[in-house]
Design a protein that fits this description.
With about 800 residues, the protein is an alpha/beta fold. The chain contains 33 helices and 24 strands. The strands form 6 sheets. The protein has a 9-stranded mixed beta sheet with strand order 7-10-11-4-1-12-13-17-18, with helices on both faces. It has a 6-stranded parallel beta sheet with strand order 21-20-19-22-23-24, with helices on both faces. The chain starts with 8 loop residues before the first helix and ends in an 8-residue tail after the last helix. Bound molecules: N-[(phenylcarbonyl)carbamoyl]-beta-D-glucopyranosylamine. The site of N-[(phenylcarbonyl)carbamoyl]-beta-D-glucopyranosylamine has 19 residues, from helix 6. Belongs to the glycogen phosphorylase family.
Amino acid sequence: MDDLPRTDLRAAIMWHLTYTLGKDPDHAQLFDWRMALSHAVRDRIVDRWMTATRDTYRADAKRVYYLSMEFLIGRLLEDNIVNLQMTDQARAAIESLGLDYRQLLLDEPDAALGNGGLGRLAACFMESLATLGCPAYGYGIRYEHGLFRQSFLDGRQQEAPEDWLQQPNAWEFERPEARFTLGFGGNILTRAGTTRWEPEHFVQAEAFDTPVIGWRGRWANTLRLWAGRAVNPFDLERFNAGDFAAAAENEALARTISRVLYPEDSTEKGKYLRLMQEYFFSAASIRDILRRFETAHQDLRLLPQKVAIQMNDTHPAIAGPELVRLLHDERGLPFDEALDIARGCLNYTNHTLLPEALESWGEALFASLLPRHLQLIDRIDDAHAKAHPARRVSAHGDGRVRMGELSFIMSNRVNGVAALHTGLMKTTVFRELNDLHPGRIVNETNGVTPRRWVHSCNPRLSALITDTIGDGWIGDLEKLTELEPHIDDADWLARFAQVKTDNKAGLCDWVTREHELMLNPEAIFDVQIKRIHEYKRQHLNILEAIALWQEIRDNPGAGWTPRVKIFGGKAAPGYFFAKDIIRLINDAARVINADAATHGLLQIIYLPNYNVTMAERLIPAADLSEQISTAGKEASGTGNMKFALNGALTIGTLDGANVEIRERVGKENFFLFGMTVDEAEARRQVENHAAGAIAADPRLARAIEAIRAGAFSPDEPDRYAGIVGNLTGPDYFLVASDFSDYWRAQREVDQAYADKRNWARMAALNAARSGWFSSDRTIRGYMADIWGARSLTGN
Ligand code: BZD
């Protein structure tokens, strides 16, 4: 066997094709070449990865552990090539083999181990942690099936299992030796003053490690995902007795734990298997953290100096009681000391205030799986009550275990994800706890990684920026402000506008190829991509489209600004209202796109199977970003940041991070509409608020009437009775009440877009002033305010 070539990438690809994949170049498929390139790239990460691990041990540095049920990673090959700054080299090597570089990158399956914003944030954070040289581990679940694949049948969402692990994953290293046995159920034994849990069922968690390399390849961290494995995979006795299925039962059961990602976001279903998943990955992670600490230290009291654990929402909340259990029951520390140590390590990020999303478990179910943890939660509650006798706020009570309260009580710091959201945490769900623990709640406004979300996804814009101010912005995004003086230069602004034109043309080609629809490239590309939810109000958007269609038909010669409305996003399979919204958009699109009277002036397309890769395609081509949630409901949003950075203007409410985006880009460069949080609260108190709003706005009344009368569902006129009933009745999310102002703002968009030059100026100002929304800035905030962690690369 020839030696593995270290420097020449083409030779390395050929080597891996032969010796890793066992393929003759004459018979190699795209998949084989992609795997060969991935292995060659991975080789260039591994040395740095090991150096980083060694440096961390040597410096005895504090490590950050990010516990998250979800990591919505997307594709990794390009990310890794970009961060190693090998793009030109990789393209040249692939092209010299007669292959198409982009096609090869696109062959990689999208790792969809998350639902939406929360999971994607975790992925951006992993990249920024590595970029900043902060020693960190991500811990999660290696789901065999990520988020379902979405397709449409007659406009209705269909779900099919996602299969990313059908093909071998080039990035992960299986660690059969890194396994922990975890228990469930069983009994609690108290003997000679010590209490021990004797579980009844056992599963093993096996580690799979993926290196995460930062920008310029200076540092790499580990994403460690746990897979479920049976303790005794195979029962030979039962097999020999002829019971073949039962012989493999253990194995099947254990593997079920990490089989599939729960597709509900922002709702809480209280499922037994979900609690098993939460305990499975939290407990395996906590054991791994303790094991690593104990290789270098004996004194457990040092733990908070060496370990910072971040709980991404309440899904890993059981990590708190588990750590207390290991320190107290298993290591013998006094309970109060164990509790103090655990609290010194743990922190909690809240991502939603929606009551239906706050996790809680029935005590019977909880006790059947985790009896000892329930006892410990009661002791944690008692200790808290003793320290704060005036008011009793508890995690366990009224027959339920509330994970928000548990996370808060167990945490050193609790954070919200945008300024408005953090403020609301203090006055609503966590009001009492905030009074008891002033200063514990802090804000860390979300951010996104500029490597993926500008540099890679928008190569034309990246090249223009680098040509203008150098490439320092990629690692220091606030440098984008240096673009501002160039915006007044007409030639520069024309180049900026040309980037968008070219990106739009590219999207048009793709849509024509994949969906057989010709989009008008002159139109405003108006994009709403995110999970489908009533609070995000995709139905407000489609209502406006219907009203616009009706108005154009009435008055076709009124000089309309052409528009293409683009939708993307999945609905939780059991969320029927959201699925109705999807169907309504598809039905309306079919009717409107076929109407010769409005042809070229209004087009609507709902792209199926929205995912990270599709976001990377759409965001660079967008003119207008729809961020239209009911005020107070969207904790932050991160798509809003990606759009602004890529030179789209936002139409949005004063919600989540929209508020901070508007402050930074300037209110004259943002299309604001809608009620504030306080106004929305007051409006809900008005009797028949929806009916009142509809009566006051004939456009809205007519659009709703068209839906009601079956204009978009002639074969089933009452198909949307549910949506119509909600809009004209309770309308908790205030679609009707915000409609008129939304319409007004949309017409301002039309007018503004007609002045091409000024639009480009506003778009460029959005890009130039959004550098603060880098996840590097966010992670620096966590390091300083929450973790007390430092960079080992001087970043
Ligand atoms: O988290 C989202 C919020 O809705 C966004 O406003 C915010 O920007 C991001 C990141 O902070 N929340 C989620 O994405 N929530 C979930 O995905 C989720 C998943 C499972 C269970 C409950 C919620």
